Amino acid sequence: xxxxxxxxxxxxxxxxxxxxxxPSVNKDNPSSIITNEKRENIEKLANQGYPKAQYLLGLLxxxxxxxxxxxxxxxxxxxxxADQNYATAQATLGWMYTSGxxxxxxYKKAFEYYQQAGQNGEAGAWYNIGSLYAAGLGVPNDYGKAFEYYQxxxxxxxxxxxxxxxxxxxxxxxFPKDYQKAAEYYQxxxDNGDEEAQYQLGSMYxxxxxxQKDYGAAFGYYQxxxSAGSAKAQYQLGLMYEFGWGVTQDxxxxxxxxxxxxxxxxxxxxxxxxxxxxxx
Length: 280
Fold this sequence. Notes:
single chain; mainly alpha; Serine Threonine Protein Phosphatase 5, Tetratricopeptide repeat; two-stranded antiparallel sheet; 2 strands
């Protein structure tokens, strides 16, 4: 499932996220875990009106696990679950209307389902409402509202919202730029393992933006983000090794990180490697 549905607000890196839509199963052969017997038990409970079973059956149809993929059936059971105020089913329907998966895109309906899910305790739904306001999808573009809902999501334990709040302070969306506030929220997000926040902190330490310039700290945060798979961070580490910023200069290490970054499609890293190749 695509967890990140791009919006028009690229400068903030705003994304909408889906509720988990697949059970914890063997990714190579999920049907080997969800046996016919288990699926039949889920169906039985779903048809008896149990909202969690209705939600699970909806996911099986949505993902084609143990049953043929069937969006109509998925929506049918997810709606039955959502009508009983099962928050994760409401959030999943919101995501489906946002992405147009099995239904026509309808941001207003998505908003309604996210709102229901948030009121029933799904903090990620508040995050998605914040992203709708930030991008003006189905609602007027309103950074103040976006900030409000990101705050609600963060207070509910949805850590990705901390990164978005930091980005709003960094770029001055809805209020004046405040690099120190941006760094504060990025730090909170980075401490929770958010690779984008780790990358941004690395950049802020490298440039001295809202923080005292510190190549050593920048290197450390880039390393964390790179270890999590960030191509941008891998590129920056390559540069730091190439020029000896905050680390002993090491051409081999520089090339190693550039290859990692280029392998993920980073065009700057690809250009760097092409230049090195041309010079040989």
